[in-house]
Specification:
By secondary structure, this protein is of the alpha+beta class. 26% of the residues lie in helices and 29% in strands. It has helices at residues 16-27, 52-61, 64-70, 111-124, 172-177, 244-255, 303-322, 331-356, 410-414, 452-457, 481-493, and strands at 7-12, 32-36, 49-50, 72-73, 76-80, 86-89, 107-108, 129-131, 134-140, 145-151, 154-165, 183-198, 204-208, 217-221, 228-234, 261-277, 282-283, 286-288, 294-295, 380-381, 399-402, 407-409, 419-424, 435-439, 446-447, 463-467, 473-478. The longest helix is centred in the last third of the chain and has 26 residues, at 331-356. It starts with 6 loop residues before the first strand and ends in a 9-residue tail after the last helix.
């Protein structure tokens, strides 16, 4: 019998969100096509901040070390006053890593380098981006999606099971679905440009006239490159001059530093700041993620990070449903991720207003480590558990030892597309594909040699914790007859039935 589907998933848009989803699907063996209407990769630095939670995701998908090697930490900020004096401070503070939170400061790497590393990882997994291929139309029904694509080889029609709109703030997919994108224009227009310049050192992030929306300019050395990124608010009217001469003139006018010379412009853009959130993330077999679902000002460095986490949330759910889990599992994508985007919009807008007054400070709230899904239908908790870690929380890391005596980390056990069950008791649950089971204690394969696992998870004797593929706690249960029955039912619901149940 001929399979009517060319692929399981068609991803429209090969930015950070589309690439994350493609990598996750590729490592799960899910067939997909990843199309991008531009003929070349995105050339700019725009989403340059990688927050700690996204670093955890990048570790899981196998690119964190390359990201760190290609970028660097943010330099300190040097803010100049009108009288020529300045204050210098660390970007976001220098908090210390902990056993539960191994990544604690944002990394800086231009978006074009991040996406290149992601494309290389995708190639390792057998995938690729189809540049110059544009989605021109689609229809969806109860069984799948029929999509029309225009590319260098002409027009084609493909049949897929699911379509993903990761195609940016002007999303064709969102418009075609008729999904409203309410919000507001924030009355701020800005430029961002990657340039080669001389006259400023690369050891600080230069800030001038902070809080003055007519004269502000920030000039940041882009780690991993020889470029600087210029950011500055501009008039909402007219077209700013984004040439090397125009940008040099802007810098001199706003800083009085005639020694600054802009030699070339690698990439530049002018944009109006908006805060908008799609009414829906899903219509039957079509989904929105990333900027197609939410846009907000760049204050706080949340955009790329939120988009990556959208994809990381959706990927394992698509794979599970394609392997037999109930379709309702896909409803949890919007239920979990849309409230997060709503919070991010509020945070970014508040930081923008603070920046207008020169009071912007980035604290823990931008790190995204406290994001969780406690109200999710996938958060199963024992009625008696009213302390510490809860279902829906981010699963903490902890240094451990294996029974063979070698040091390891919980995150090392979590790496990969599987679920993880940590058992602190003697009861057993049937083994099944897609579930890694580890038993704690002296007779187990995982030793809490340093006490950090107990401190982070608070597991009592005869308790277990189930960790989702995206690093969140799915369930914390008593590991007794009732708890095992609840666990078995939960695993079957998310597409992990025991062999006996198949």
């Amino acid at each position: 019998m001929t399979n009517e589907f060319e692929a399981d998933v068609l991803i429209c848009g090969a930015g950070a969100a589309g690439l994350t989803l493609a990598i996750d699907l590729a490592r799960r063996g899910v067939s997909f096509r990843l199309i991008e209407k531009t003929r070349e990769p995105f050339p700019g630095s725009r989403g340059k901040g990688i927050q700690p939670r996204t670093q955890e995701i990048f570790e899981d998908i196998g690119i964190l070390d390359k990201i760190v090697a290609a970028g660097g930490v943010y330099p300190s900020m040097r803010e100049y006053r009108d009288d020529g004096s300045f204050v210098e401070r660390d970007f976001g503070g220098r908090v210390q890593a902990t056993p539960a939170e191994p990544y604690h400061i944002p990394l800086m790497i231009p978006q074009f380098l991040t996406e290149q590393i992601m494309r290389d990882r995708l190639a390792e997994l057998g995938g690729r981006v189809e540049f110059g291929s544009e989605l021109t139309g689609f229809e969806h029904d109860g069984d799948g999606v029929t999509a029309r694509i225009s590319g260098s080889g002409g027009a084609e029609t493909v049949r897929v099971r699911h379509l993903i709109g990761a195609d940016g703030g002007r999303s064709f997919v969102r418009h075609a679905l008729g999904i409203a994108f309410p919000g507001k224009t924030l009355g701020v227009r800005a430029i961002v440009a990657d340039v080669g310049l001389t006259g400023l050192s690369r050891d600080v992030w230069w800030q001038f006239n902070t809080g003055d929306m007519q004269r502000m300019v920030a000039i940041c050395p882009l780690m991993g490159t020889d470029l600087f990124q210029i950011q500055a608010p501009v008039s909402v009217d007219g077209d700013p001059d984004l040439s090397a001469n125009g940008l040099e003139k802007l810098i001199v006018e706003r800083t009085g530093r005639n020694e600054v010379k802009v030699h070339d412009v690698s990439w530049a853009s002018a944009y109006a700041m908006n805060a908008r959130l799609a009414d829906r993330y899903r219509v039957d077999r079509v989904f929105l993620m990333g900027d197609a679902a939410h846009i907000h000002p760049p204050t706080g460095g949340q955009g790329l990070n939120t988009s990556v986490q959208d994809a990381y949330n959706l990927g394992w759910k698509l794979a599970a449903v394609l392997c037999g889990a109930g379709d309702k599992l896909l409803d949890t994508y919007e239920a979990e991720r849309r409230p997060v985007a709503e919070e991010v919009l509020g945070l970014s807008s508040r930081l923008l207003e603070a920046g207008k007054n020169g009071e912007i400070r980035r604290g823990r709230e931008v790190q995204q480590l406290d994001i969780g899904y406690p109200q999710s239908p996938l958060a199963l908790r024992a009625a008696s558990r009213d302390r510490g870690l809860q279902a829906g929380d981010r699963a903490p890391d902890a240094p451990i030892k294996g029974a063979g005596g070698q040091p390891s980390r919980l995150f090392g056990l979590f790496i990969g597309p599987h679920w993880t069950l940590l058992v602190n008791g003697e009861w057993s649950v049937a083994s099944r594909p897609g579930l890694h089971i580890h038993r704690l204690g002296q007779r187990g394969d995982v030793l809490d040699a340093f006490g950090h696992l107990r401190a982070a998870y608070g597991l009592e004797a005869d308790e277990c914790v189930l960790i989702r593929p995206d690093g969140y706690v799915g369930a914390i249960l008593a590991f007794d007859a009732e708890g095992v029955a609840q666990l078995e039912a939960y695993l079957e619901r998310v597409g992990l039935p025991s062999r006996e149940a198949v």
